[in-house]
Design a protein that fits this description.
Elements: H1 10-14, E1 26-35, H2 39-50, E2 55-58, E3 74-75, H3 84-89, H4 97-109, H5 111-122, E4 133-136, H6 143-155, E5 160-163, H7 165-172, E6 180-183, E7 187-188, H8 191-204, E8 208-210, E9 217-221, E10 224-229, E11 232-241, E12 260-269, H9 274-279, E13 286-288, E14 296-299, E15 305-309, H10 317-332, E16 341-351, E17 358-363, E18 366-370, H11 376-391, E19 403-404, H12 415-430
Parallel strand pairs: 1-2, 1-11, 2-8, 4-13, 11-18, 17-19
Antiparallel strand pairs: 3-7, 4-6, 5-6, 9-10, 10-11, 12-15, 12-16, 13-14, 14-15, 17-18
Helix pairs in contact: 2-8, 2-11, 5-11
């Protein structure tokens, strides 16, 4: 079997090379088998190996093949649609109630710091810049939402502050927005570089990583689990299922129906001139605003403006998304003039119908999660660590996230229609108070 190639993204063109790996060949045993070589699986493998577990990771493609190697690379310590009070309140008493909800809020609050701490500790080459993440309000009426978010996160110890219109203009280089807020622990990375660096760190800690090794079946074998691949198999006491939006149908009954894969499109300009570079996001922030049809921007190390967006229908995506986002960038940053993109690519993110992440005990010793909802860089890294802690023996009730039984999305077969409808609805709502 030939492993799939990475898409022709900016990150594939600029990230340092991955550590050497090869497909699993023949039988193997491990304490913990991790399925998926993205942020969740790699963070889990690193923390498992550091904790002394014999760890084996299986990845169908190259390291970072899925959303982890394709996203915008913004490191954001919050959820896209749920604020802290909502996160805490939605955890039911049988899952630990508000106290467990507040633990999850704390995990999310500190998730960006975890990413940058791992990068510093392991010397990962990922173009990491932790100069903060900002969320501007795209209409004056959205300042109420901004104030609520800043207040709720600030009350829980996050280093946040409100920004007025002039401050946002100075930090963004645009008069497009009407104020906003920032969190100084956020930032930006080359996400594929981070994934590859996590892989190298996990290998250095003793984990075994096998690329080109898709899991095709999981079966119970006494007290253990057997995972079959095209050229080998591994028997392990515990499993972390970290394939997320790239989970093949039927690998675990119903797991792929706990989330909806949503296309997210990314693109990058050629490097800008020094004068233009200094006029946009001059302090190096990552930015994503309050629109449902999200406007988001950041730079890479070479001065390329990296952005993206969504489409209601995927047909002819390359030309359509380039035209659509070029108009957007020229409207937000008119100093750029006509905009051309040197790279455009896409990947799936995993959305849930309630916009919340869900951590599952799929069976005794088998953990998985779904629902990054566009916040996967920091959240997946943090949840990978928590799943590792549980697989090392920490009771599930003690990790910093509620653990539940598998939750399937109703009418999952109609999900593509729902995604298209939501995208159209977001655009309609963004123009109204």
């Amino acid at each position: 079997m030939t492993a799939p190639d990475l898409p022709p993204s900016l990150w594939a063109a600029t990230a340092p090379p991955p550590p050497e790996s090869r497909p699993l060949a023949g039988p193997a045993r491990a304490d913990v088998a991790v399925i998926g070589g993205g942020f969740t699986g790699l963070s889990a493998a690193l923390h498992l190996a550091e904790g002394g577990a014999d760890t084996l990771l299986l990845e169908a493609g190259p390291i970072g093949y899925g959303a982890s190697g394709r996203n915008n690379g913004q490191v954001i310590p919050n959820l896209s649609r749920l604020d802290p009070d909502d996160i805490a309140a939605r955890v039911t008493p049988e899952l630990g109630g508000r106290d467990k909800g507040e633990q999850l809020v704390g995990l999310i609050r500190d998730s960006a710091s975890l990413v940058f701490d791992l990068i510093r500790r392991h010397g990962i080459e990922a173009e990491a810049v932790q100069n903060g993440w900002m969320q501007p309000a795209h209409r004056p009426s959205r300042m109420a939402l901004v104030r609520k978010r800043a207040e709720q996160w600030g009350r829980r110890g996050a280093p946040v502050r409100l920004l007025d219109k002039a401050e946002v203009a100075a930090l963004s280089g645009s008069e497009f927005w009407d104020g906003g807020w920032e969190n100084r622990t956020g930032g930006r990375i080359n996400p594929l570089g981070f994934a590859r660096g996590l892989a190298a760190a996990a290998i250095g800690a003793g984990a075994r990583l096998h690329t080109g090794s898709p899991a095709t079946a999981i079966t119970r074998e006494g007290p253990s689990w057997r995972i079959t691949t095209p050229s080998g198999e591994v028997v392990a006491s515990r499993i972390i299922l970290a394939s997320h939006a790239y989970t093949p149908p039927g690998l675990w009954p119903g797991f792929e129906r706990s989330m909806v894969p949503v296309r997210s499109y990314q693109m990058a300009t050629a490097p800008l001139s020094d004068n233009l570079r200094r006029s946009i996001l001059p302090q190096g922030h990552a930015l994503s605003d309050t629109q449902g049809d999200l406007h988001f921007f950041r730079f890479d190390a070479a001065g390329r403006l990296v952005t993206g967006g969504g489409l209601i229908l995927p047909m002819g995506w390359d030309n359509r998304i380039r035209r659509r986002i070029a108009v957007r960038v020229e409207r937000v940053f008119p100093q750029l003039g006509p905009v051309r993109f040197s790279h455009a690519w896409w990947g799936y993110i995993a959305a849930t119908d309630d916009k919340a992440p869900h951590l599952y005990e799929l069976a005794p010793g088998v953990l998985g999660w779904s629902g990054c909802n566009g916040r996967g860089v920091a959240l997946a890294t943090a949840l990978g660590r928590e799943m590792a802690r549980a697989s090392l023996g920490m009771p599930l009730r003690e990790i910093a996230a509620p653990v539940e039984s598998l939750r399937r999305i109703a009418l999952h077969g109609f999900a593509p229609l729902g995604v298209a409808w939501n995208q159209a609805l977001f655009r309609w709502k963004d123009g109204r108070d």
